[in-house]
Design brief:
There is one protein chain. The protein is α/β, with parallel strands linked by helices. It contains 12 helices and 7 strands. Helix 1 packs parallel to helix 3 and helix 4 packs parallel to helix 8.
């Protein structure tokens, strides 16, 4: 997905939020905004938002010396998801269709996004998404791919969301390789987060090999690219991975809630709609 002009002010807002989490020094915060502003002339519409985000969050770490400014928020979000696990586990276990209910729960976790600039409630998202109609639902092709796939490559999104991802991974009933960000970026899931959320109990954890907030293929490791090539089903969670992987292959299925007007428009849906979309 190409970068929109509407993404540029969002990059500035994200940088300021990360800078304020990393330091109280307004001089450093201003220096960070200056660095992002200096990137703007070099932004090409052909670049994906995660490619640009990669540079922004590298600057956050470089200028503030803080590698994971969202650490406390991630821990709090993961705890919130853990607190809801008994309820969502019961919902999945008692559902007429546990697989699709687990898909819904996994999408509900996608509301935990500190890159969008909106407030959220995980509990409210779960309550809503469990009953919300899909704006896009490629369920038949998803089930067909799942049945035929020897394993599933599952590309994770945010740390809190990964707690709910464990439920869907169990319902897939296939070997799963769960891909995480190589380093901390926004509130995205890293190996440390995935282990803490229980992903290691249900899947093999690998890194994308990239620090971008989305699986930009030409920045990923050889190991990840080999898995991507061999996989017959790739589950891509969240907006950053949609920005990076949309249009790459019909074996990719995007599970997300459209929280951003630019992404909603690209999908042809409304903001806050949920999708299970092929390709």
């Amino acid at each position: 997905m190409q970068t929109s002009l509407d993404c540029i002010p969002c990059f500035m807002r994200q940088a300021l939020k990360a800078g304020r989490l990393a330091t109280t020094d307004e001089r450093l915060q201003k220096e960070l905004l200056d660095a992002v502003a200096a990137m703007v002339p070099g932004i090409s519409p052909e670049m994906t938002p995660p490619e640009i985000g990669d540079g922004i969050y590298r600057d956050v770490s470089r200028l503030t010396g803080v590698e994971d400014p969202f650490r406390e928020l991630k821990d709090a979000n993961m705890q919130e998801a853990f607190d809801l696990m008994p309820e969502v586990l019961e919902a999945v276990s008692n559902a007429a269709d546990p697989l699709m209910t687990a898909v819904r729960v996994a999408i509900a976790g996608n509301v935990i996004d500190h890159g969008v600039g909106r407030s959220f409630s995980v509990r409210d998202a779960v309550d809503q998404v469990l009953h919300q109609p899909f704006a896009i639902l490629d369920e038949h092709s998803f089930r067909t791919r799942l049945e035929e796939a020897p394993f599933v490559l599952y590309v994770g999104d945010n740390a809190g969301e990964s707690v709910f991802d464990t439920l869907l991974i169990r319902e897939l009933q296939k070997p799963v390789v769960f891909a995480v960000r190589d380093v901390a970026v926004i509130n995205d899931v890293t190996r440390q987060d995935a282990v803490a959320s229980g992903i290691g109990d249900v899947a093999r954890i690998v890194s994308t090999g990239s620090s971008a907030p989305g699986a930009v293929l030409d920045r990923c490791s050889g190991e990840f690219l080999d898995l991507f090539d061999r996989a017959e089903l790739v589950i891509s969670k969240g907006q950053g991975n949609y920005e990076a992987l949309s249009g790459t292959s019909d074996k990719v299925f995007f599970l997300l809630r459209a929280k951003c007007p630019v992404i909603a428009d690209h999908l042809g849906v409304d903001v806050d709609d949920i999708v299970l979309k092929q390709g």
